[in-house]
Amino acid sequence: MFKKGDLVLLIDSKGKRYLITLKEKGSFSFHKGKIEFREILGKREGETIVSSKGEKLLIFKPTLEEYILKMKRGAQIIYPKDIAQILTIGDIFPGAKVFEAGTGSGALTISLLRQVGKKGRVVSYEKRKEFLDQAKENITKFQNLRKEEWGKLILRERDIEKGITEKDFDRAILDLPEPWKVLKEMEKILKPGGILVCYLPTVLQIFNLIEEIEKNFGKVFYLMGIYEFLQRKWKKSGLSLRPEDRMVAHTGFIILIRKLKSSCKRNKKRF
Fold it and tell me: What pLDDT band is residue 271 in, cutting at 50, 70 and 90?
């Protein structure tokens, strides 16, 4: 049953979604009327409530995707479609020790914590305090909602270019504008065979990253692949099915890199 402090996802008759936090008193107002919080308290997921203007809404607890898209943001988030691929392509496994640089609003951090499980660990660096504070709030809210056993989280307000205090990571994920500047740090902290994932919005950034690897880190890193993922939803209209009018196209590129033993020969292969 829904109680004070819970996050509630409201879905109206046209499928529009609203995310609210329940309070003991108060209400939520939108263009189709007002809903008193007391009308939701004590109800269960999947029930229907009615606004002051007669609009019927379904109530659910938000999924991770819905939470990420509706949560407060300090920095731009990595979208769920890309997070799903990072977890899979980056082979984030239960018990893994994962380094993240660029915590941002915490969308990827939440996903990593769930994926590594209670025996795993996530260490996340963010140099901007306002982003880190927002990420902490977002992470705490979702964890309180789901009551799941997550991995251990260490958040640090620190610029990665000034060095990393931890080491021996299985995986590292960089959401930074210039990841080529910290390849030396990645060499130090990743285990041989470890995976480095870089998330970049532009082709020029990819080019600069690959150039730096080929020029100075050919004996350290092996470029596995460059990926871009597009997402298109479909909808039912009468007796037909067709794509929705808008789709989530380019949001960023995912670059997959593996750590070598230092004795390996330089790799100049491009993908």
Answer: very low
